[in-house]
Amino acid sequence: MLRVHFTGLDLARLRLAGDPDALWETVLSLHRLRDKQGESIFGDWRSETRTRLNGETRLLAPLVPSRGYFPDFLTPPEGVLGLESGMQALRATPADRVHQELGRLAGARTLPAWIRSLAEGDARAFGKLIGALHAYHQAAIEPYWPHIQAQIEADRAVRGRALLDGGADALLSSLPPMMRWRAPVLECDYPVDRDLHLNGRGLLLLPSFFCRRTPVAFQNPELTPVLVYPARHMSESAPAVTHAPRSLGKLVGHTRSAVLGSIGGGCTTSELARRVGVSAASASQHAGVLREAGLVLTLRNGSAVMHTLTPLGAALLRGGHRGTQLCPKERDRSMRTQSPIPERSTPATMLHSPGG
Fold it and tell me: If you average pLDDT over every residue of the chain, what do you get?
């Protein structure tokens, strides 16, 4: 079990990442590629990805074992800014840190020659690592990035609503069931027994599409605290809910119905466009029409705008029944019907059964 110890200052400094992290998703997807769990979710993704690989998995496997420790320097915080920013930070890792972390990896297994050269500061070995990560990301992550972003945004909407309704306590209590908030300690299922004391540094919560079963934290407790956790996928929502009546599409139009259903707990115009599969201009236009009808509320925050449902919009969406809500799985189905994502961009299983 991992026990994360909070102080009052840590609760005040609790943050939720704004975007998926390109390098965390890359590294964690290596685990999903090699395990056999979640076949209904990741099966097609595995098959499609393997056809595009050219030995990158075999090269990276000793660096990122199927279980246990992998070096912290592979996932610098700049990865949340995108792959190139993450790679630049990776290149800038101090040589002594690379040597130390790879030494810990070598203590558990025999490493190939190129990784031993990497530990000794060989520039060519570092270039080999960067090239392999780039190629693997292009094959396994890049074609599916819009869908990964949409899933992370949906998870953020759930956490953000909890934060607005009940503060940090509610946010921590809303995390997946393998994470249990027992103030002032967050208890997490974990491969080893460990305590992480934040000591006023705060914590960045990072939802991840490819993280499954247990959260992940840096091995080095001196690094800025990050807790990567399995994102809540649309099909993992509460059961036994009512979806929007079929007549809603006839009333407001199928695309506008999908827009209304995709706003959920709140989203920006760009997020809405990705969820529905339309341009930002089209998403903004549809949201404007729904706003004029009193179904959507739009708030401006700097250069961005946030769309949320009004009580009337939520009631219309759930067919006027009290105590019910739109089933995210049904909403996802509506989105696929109106704005399907091309098969080359997103694997069928990640669309039809986004969970695990």
Answer: 80
